């Protein structure tokens, strides 16, 4: 709400006019939920003041409010209370409080180092295209946005990074930031400690394996589907084709930047990207979606059932039934949310259903990709998408826990029943 009020100020707009409240709230929600869906162009509508407000909202939203609050506590040299540690444990998706403050310190340090290095590389690259001061400013803004998986950009004209479709530096740095922010701080910490411990946790193994698989499979599918598309890959040279395929495979994992026109993609590619957006990033990261670990459990459960196994085993570890139930619950609640939002939008918006499904999934996954309908949304449509972004960032299971009735653990069990399935 504070961000929306700041964006409504005349000094935040290049026209000097007040941005309508719903548009300001939509933009602030998109930034705080690290999404990137916009109803007004970030690069041309907002002044430097407005853009800095958006960048700060992205940073706070990406790292999490409690993480930023902990930073200020460190700065004031105060101790972290037990209550705050419990909140931090929940915010970072940890199973215990052990080492939670140390993890927060690492999160802040890693974020600062990665964003600073990326900003430097961006600045040097863009100094060839624009004045040095502007290149540095662009470098800082886009490093924050991409690391936090928010699809905001300052190039104007709703173009995102399409002018750098074949640029190896911009493509590589952006993809690195998206993946680094998307794998989660727990995995990042695990990788840093790998040289000392010489082993990875089960969580890190699953995240890294599934992330790599989704990127490679996604790039191959997009490359095949778009290879002969005259509006996307066909006119590009081989280098640009490969960069584009990989970039468009990485970015649906909740980032929102694009080097190809999303609306010009074939419908098969657009639908495939909807699947990638729904899966999303990994737990404890700056991204959304049902998460890679949830998807891994679902796929593994299917294969275990087909093979007739009673236990679900990943990397020689057996998963508890509770984890499987949680994965199924998250997926079903997420599907329900996307379906309901899509159905409502199909009655309020005069666009194709695929565009609506794409927009709804993008909002839920806090991605930021669009087929060009965000700016054309009705008042009701903007409010619904804003709520979807908030629900996606918070997580459907967390939202259900918060809104649902509180019930203690049952001390009894009903007799087992049998029914026909399938």
TrEMBL record:
Keywords tagged on the record: Cell membrane, Ion transport, Membrane, Potassium, Potassium transport, Transmembrane, Transmembrane helix, Transport
A Pfam family per the record: TrkH
Main location per the UniProt record: membrane
Residue ranges of the TM segments: 24-40, 52-76, 135-152, 172-194, 206-225, 271-303, 324-345, 351-371, 383-403
GO CC terms, sorted: plasma membrane
Membrane topology: Multi-pass membrane protein
UniProt subcellular location: Cell membrane
Domain of life according to the entry: Bacteria
Molecular function terms from GO: potassium:chloride symporter activity
Protein's name in the database: Trk family potassium uptake protein
């Amino acid at each position: 709400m504070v961000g929306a009020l700041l964006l409504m100020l005349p000094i935040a707009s290049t026209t000097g006019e007040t941005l309508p409240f719903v548009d300001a709230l939509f933009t602030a929600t998109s930034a705080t939920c690290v999404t990137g869906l916009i109803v007004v162009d970030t690069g041309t509508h907002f002044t430097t003041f407005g853009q800095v407000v958006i960048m700060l909202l992205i940073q706070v939203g990406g790292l999490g409010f409690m993480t930023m609050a902990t930073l200020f506590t460190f700065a004031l040299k105060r101790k972290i209370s037990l209550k705050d540690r419990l909140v931090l444990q929940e915010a970072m998706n940890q199973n215990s409080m052990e080492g939670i403050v140390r993890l927060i310190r690492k999160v802040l340090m890693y974020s600062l180092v990665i964003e600073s290095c990326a900003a430097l590389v961006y600045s040097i690259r863009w100094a060839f295209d624009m004045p040095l001061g502007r290149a540095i400013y662009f470098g800082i803004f886009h490093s924050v946005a991409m690391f936090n998986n928010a699809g905001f950009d300052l190039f104007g004209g709703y173009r995102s990074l399409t002018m750098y479709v074949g640029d190896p530096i911009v493509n590589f740095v952006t993809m690195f930031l998206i993946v680094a922010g998307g794998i989660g701080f727990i995995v990042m910490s695990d990788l840093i400690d790998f040289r000392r411990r010489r082993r990875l946790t089960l969580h890190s193994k699953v995240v890294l394996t599934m992330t790599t698989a989704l990127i490679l499979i996604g790039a191959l599918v997009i490359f095949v589907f778009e290879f002969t598309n005259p509006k996307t890959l066909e006119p590009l040279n081989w280098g640009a084709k490969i960069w584009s395929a990989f970039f468009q495979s990485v970015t649906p994992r909740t980032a929102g930047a694009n080097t190809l026109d999303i609306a010009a993609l074939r419908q098969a590619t657009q639908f495939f990207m909807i699947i990638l957006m729904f899966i999303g990033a990994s737990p404890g990261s700056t991204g959304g979606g049902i998460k890679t670990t949830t998807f891994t459990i679902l796929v593994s459960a299917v294969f275990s059932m087909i093979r007739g196994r009673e236990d679900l085993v990943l990397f020689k570890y057996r998963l508890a039934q509770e984890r499987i139930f949680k994965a199924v619950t998250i997926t079903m609640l997420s599907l329900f949310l996307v379906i309901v939002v899509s159905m409502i939008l199909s009655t309020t918006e005069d666009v194709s259903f695929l565009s609506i499904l794409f927009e709804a999934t993008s909002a839920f996954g806090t991605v930021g990709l669009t087929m060009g309908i965000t700016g054309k949304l009705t008042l009701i449509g903007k409010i619904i998408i804003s709520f979807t972004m908030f629900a996606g960032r918070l997580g459907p299971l967390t939202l259900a826990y918060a809104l649902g009735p509180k019930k203690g653990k049952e001390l009894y069990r009903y007799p087992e029943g049998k029914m026909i399935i399938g």
